[in-house]
Task: structure prediction
Amino acid sequence: MQGGKLEFDDIQHILLTRAPAITGRYEFLSFRNAAGGRAWLSAILEKVHSAAAVRASVGKDKRWVSVAFTWNGLRALGVDDTSLATFPEEFKQGMVARAEILGDSGANHPKNWVDNTASPDLHAIVILFAKDPTERGRCQSEHKKLIAHCEGVEVLSSLDLEAVPPLAYPHDHFGYRDRLSELAIEGSGDEPRPGFGGSVKAGEFILGYPDEEGSIPPLPRPEVLSRNGSYMAYRRLQEHVGAFRDFLRQHGETPEQQELVAAKLMGRWRSGAPLVLAPHKDDPELGADMQRTNNFNYKEMDPHGYAVPLGAHIRRMNPRDTAANMNRRRMIRRGAPYGPHLPEGTPEDGKERGIAAFVICASLVRQFEFAQNVWINDKNFHELGNERDPIIGNQDGTLEYKIPMRPIRKKITGLPAFTTLRGGAYFFLPGLKALRYLASLGTPR
Amino acid sequence: MAIPKGGFFADKVEQGRYGPIFPKTPACYGFTIIAKIKPGSEETVRSYGKKIEETIAGLPEALEVLQLHYLRWVLFDINKETYFMYQGIFDTDFDKYTEDAVALFSKYGINTVFENLEGFPEDWKTNAPAFVKFVREHQCPSFLEYGEYPYVSAREIKKALKLKAAFSDALDQMQ
Result:
């Protein structure tokens, strides 16, 4: 059974669908003994939706569950050394060991993480998305009961997720519209939107299918464990809303100028409207129109960055026609904001808020790590010399940000960090059959 | 810049995705791969010189994504065995755009020149780590590198030449 149609009934829903949730919770688990871990998995896997199940019942459901494991977690469940050795090197090493490559130094260094995800004892994550806080509370207490019955299963940390008001459209704490980069996977039934250059082969995200190179790359063994699985990089990114708003005020006298500064950092107005298509004035209708908001390029439409600065977040994360092999660098993004909303005009309260996101791809080293290492944190991206991604790059106050303008460019020196990494990990997101396989390890067959 | 034996400055080795990165020198990032070719494949290897020349003639920007300054391919004999030397000077370290280079070689059909090298991984197109391992194992780090225009990128040079041409044009039009 190689390649072929996507097995929607085996692929975890988070890979292919986006649940209509406004709240959620992540719990990070450790298995002190294998049998306890497998008992937990046997019980929880009944709650894990496949992509097919979510598509069939999304209107009725109130909660959506996903589970994924670190390499240490697979070992803790009883996966043998022969099989463990077939996983890719970067996944075996884990996010902590890859910190330098990812640019996670200084304040972002794993030693400063707050959620125990840097611990080698991190084995699993259970992701809950819920329709409302009541449902989340119910699931949380159910899960607590389950864990109490499973010997040696320990919660290392947890994180509650909350959509940021106003709930009319998804956005982060800085106010930027989110979920604009939804790509379409070939064979998923999703139509590619204008500006994406068509759909992307399933093998770029799901193991066991041909990728953009045209063949099925070697899979971890046994196949039952890897097929329909994927890799997931978790990033808990604190957003310093107070510092961000201070920065806008410092660099823009009027509210309009401040909006433009925010737009120049991102490459889009906070409404989502791209600067290439709306260079001088915000156009919220354009921002919300998924048929139009991505339909632009850089080489012909903005080669010098007069609309979207060369180092802007969206230009780094998706250089479009100015990079080679874009379809080998695509990633699926999931996740949600966490922490309390800081209303406009309210001073910084020192509370942690941000985005707890997942990057899902078939090869962490080729997709996620490339984006971190080359696009986000390479100081010389596009010959910029002394810049990193202004939103999620590792900023220590010594770098700059150049905004091409006529007649002369604006150069901001000493760009502050608007985000800080507070946790992270590499997970393997198995298919449903693989979850059952893991749960049955150690039992005679 | 004099480079220590082994190719790295021990106190400042930067880690890339596929291992430690050789340092940037005034001549930017260079690498020199020396590998034995399979017996009897000398003419085949040599024919790729022509092939690349034709590719570039038809599509001058074919290799642009590699951010390359120079490429020098040399064949030489030691004890009746033929060796291939691939020397390239790049603007970025080898680690950053490895996968793009692999894709590019396949795209223009120059992939098989490497397949004539002994020990080259057969599954290199789908197995970037194996490709990287071969390259690293056959890399001979230099111990001296010099650049008359230190640390300047190929793109900057091209930009400067374009500017010079535009300026010259403007002057001509004022005559």
Observations:
- The first helix of chain A runs from residue 13 to 16.
- Residues 13-236+425-439 of chain A form one domain.
